[in-house]
Amino acid sequence: MRIAFYSPNKPLGHPDPSGDQTIAQGLVEALHGAGYACREMSRFRARWFWREKGGWSRAVQGVVEALRQSRIWRPHLWLTYHTYYKAPDVIGPWLSRLLGIPYVLVQPMYGTKRRRRAETRPGFYLNRWALLGAHLAVINNRNDLAALERVVPLNRLAYVAPGIFPEMFVRCEAARRTVRAHWGFAAHDPVLLAVARFRPGVKRKSLHFLFHALARIGDNPKPWRLVVVGDGPLEAEMHRTAARRLGRRVVFVGRVARRELHAYYSAGDLFVFPGIRESLGMVYLEAQACGLPVVALREGGVDQVVWDGLTGILIPRRDPGAYAEAVRNLLQDEARRRFLGLKGVRYVEWYRNLHRQVRYLAGLLESLV
């Protein structure tokens, strides 16, 4: 089966990484691994295109180029990943009809309040048009279901749990020793790890919350260090805030290639990222696959990728004191950290394994074709 692929929010090769891009790349890789030919048909980035000079012209060019490629390659199915009001799919609905092939959306989103503002109204109606034309809409976040039911019939909706490739994130003791030695940490120094992009919005709020909460711990029960992996436009602000709150306890290591992240997860003892309004958070699955217990907030879709009480601790409200207490308790209890870490590895392998999820998705696509 040949699958035409399109990601309107961010092309597969976009230089600015994000969780959505990671999911899209994993989806394509998994489909290839399952024996399907999957080709990106357009790199047109639809995000807010109607607000930009020449945006509509570029959209038309994207449609024409994708049509040219499609007529040569002759796909059996069109699959668009993540359409929503900021980045609606303006290519797939047209081309799937012209080519006479099924049109599938993976991780679409819908919110009726977006039609109220002039700024978001074009994106709302374009996204609605895509949803109305879909033969199948596949969600990976249960929180999106209620809104989508307003526009997509139930018999065209399916749920496939989020997942990662567990083999990419395996705990490595040799890497742990190497990375910790590079930082000058002793073998038994407690190390907290966070992985995030330093960008405005919820990531910024989460990092500020984290620094504020950890400042309450002090050296109780013993001296610990925080390692932050990531970069972004707010890097200078994050450095200043962390230095003011945590002093020399925090180390920033910059951006790390995803294929190398397992070494940094392996060097840590506890994964700490609050996840304010986090849609899902692939970093939580990556950390658990490497045996790191998680401390996060019970917000957004975090509880769909962290098993509260079994692979980590989810704080029910934005309470820095409660967050700090959870971290402190796990720093004091090495046996519980080890138990949560082992359960996290098994949780990802059995319930959030992308190989398994894509086999189920492939069955749905085969039935449409």
Automatic annotation (TrEMBL):
What Gene3D superfamilies does the annotation carry?
Glycogen Phosphorylase B
Its keywords, alphabetically, are: Transferase
The terms under GO molecular function for this entry are:
glycosyltransferase activity
Q: Extract the InterPro entries matched here.
A: Glycosyltransferase_grp1
**PANTHER family under this entry?**
SULFOQUINOVOSYL TRANSFERASE SQD2 (PTHR45947)
| The name this protein goes by in its record | Glycosyltransferase involved in cell wall biosynthesis
Pfam families referenced in this protein's UniProt entry, alphabetically: Glyco_trans_1_4
**The species this protein was found in:** Desulfosoma caldarium
